[in-house]
From TrEMBL:
Keywords: DNA-binding, Transcription, Transcription regulation. The keyword Transcription applies. This is Transcription regulator. It comes from Levilactobacillus spicheri DSM 15429. InterPro entries: HTH_LacI, LacI/GalR-like_sensor, Lambda_DNA-bd_dom_sf, Peripla_BP_I. Coiled coil: none annotated. SMART domains: HTH_LACI. Residues 3-53 form the HTH lacI-type domain. One of its GO terms (molecular function) is transcription cis-regulatory region binding. The keyword Ribonucleoprotein does not apply. It comes from the Bacteria.
Length: 338
């Protein structure tokens, strides 16, 4: 069962109003970054289910460096990566492994005696090579590095996007807009395009329905979602589609705000589906329909791959692809089954 605002407020020791405003990215609220971080982490943790414990490796406590490409502050703006990290840390605790976190690919912070590295996010070839010099036991989460010889845990984006388009299409919503993101690795050597854009273009083109005028690029933040939806409203006017797919939940929450300000009712005028199903999807208004990504499984699978590699001496790389589930809530009321 999902955590309530009251559960979170009691755990952190703040008011219900403070929790609600933080989870809705209200930057006018005067609250410390520490409290904000606590609220997000407690919200994520309270939604986790306990995994069955398995015996730890008997010989020694393994040291795993967790390299997060986001900064600690930016991680709060996109809870997807925080959720992966929390799932990874929970599985490591169950195995009695020691995890050491570093943010923004700070290699100087990594213990030289580390047994393995789990890299979360996107990394350039130069960064991958630098990590490999520290240990051959590498797992990448959310980036496919199988072709370079490294274990990888990824999401099936094509399947997820097909689910979204199918859902809209089944209810006669054929003009579908897209808000997507793009960003760079921390060393600025590699631009990382949104894989959901490629999947969306492929799926819509196959239906002779892809319209580049309905596609808007942002940077995955709440503010970007707000700005890009305002841009769509201004540019398209009466041609604004009645359905939008937004490629992460923070952007979708920002898009909801822009639609409210323009008096465009959700879902009556515009249906909206986000991506990742992070905590904020349940606390925005209206509640956000979204694609659920099992971030806990992504993180725990990375730990399992490390454990397998170290126990068996396996050198052949593996790629594990995790599926998704479309969760329909109030932002797509018309799509709900009767």
């Amino acid at each position: 069962m999902a955590a309530t605002l009251k559960d979170i407020a009691q755990s952190v020791g703040v008011s219900l109003a403070t929790v609600s405003r933080v989870l809705n990215y209200d930057r006018t609220l005067s609250v410390s970054e520490h409290t904000r971080k606590q609220i997000f982490e407690v919200a994520e943790n309270l939604n986790y289910t306990k995994l069955k414990r398995r015996p730890a490796m008997p010989d020694k406590q393994l040291k795993i460096a967790v390299v997060q490409w986001y900064s600690e502050t930016k991680e709060l703006d996109d809870l997807y990566y925080m959720s992966i990290r929390l799932g990874l840390e929970k599985r490591s605790e169950q195995r009695h492994f020691l995890t050491m976190r570093t943010f923004q690919n700070d290699l100087n912070a990594i213990d030289p005696d580390v047994d393995a590295i789990i890299a979360i996010g996107k990394f350039s070839n130069q960064q991958v090579a630098a990590l490999a010099r520290l240990t051959p036991n590498l797992v990448f989460v959310d980036q496919d590095q199988l072709c370079h010889g490294y274990d990888s845990v990824v999401t099936d984006f094509q399947f997820a996007v097909d689910q979204v388009v199918d859902a809209f299409w089944a209810h006669g919503q054929h003009r579908i807009g897209l808000l997507h993101g793009a960003e760079w690795t921390t060393d600025k050597e590699l631009e990382v395009s949104d894989p959901r854009l490629k999947a969306f273009r492929r799926t819509m083109t196959a239906r002779n329905a892809y319209d580049p005028d309905l596609v808007f690029a942002g940077d995955y933040t709440n503010q970007s979602g707000y700005e890009q939806m305002k841009r769509a409203i201004t540019q398209l006017g009466d041609r604004l589609p009645d359905a939008f797919f937004v490629t992460n939940d923070p952007m979708a929450a920002g898009a909801l705000k822009a639609l409210r300000e323009a008096d465009l009712a959700v879902p009556d005028r515009v249906s909206l589906i986000g991506f990742n199903d992070t905590t904020i999807a349940k606390y925005v208004f209206p509640e956000l329909s979204t694609v659920h990504v099992n971030t806990e499984l992504l993180g725990s699978t990375a730990v399992d791959l490390i454990e397998n590699r170290l126990q068996t001496g396996r050198s052949t790389p593996q790629r594990v692809t995790v599926g998704t589930e479309l969760v329909l809530r109030e932002s797509t009321r018309s799509l709900k089954k009767a």
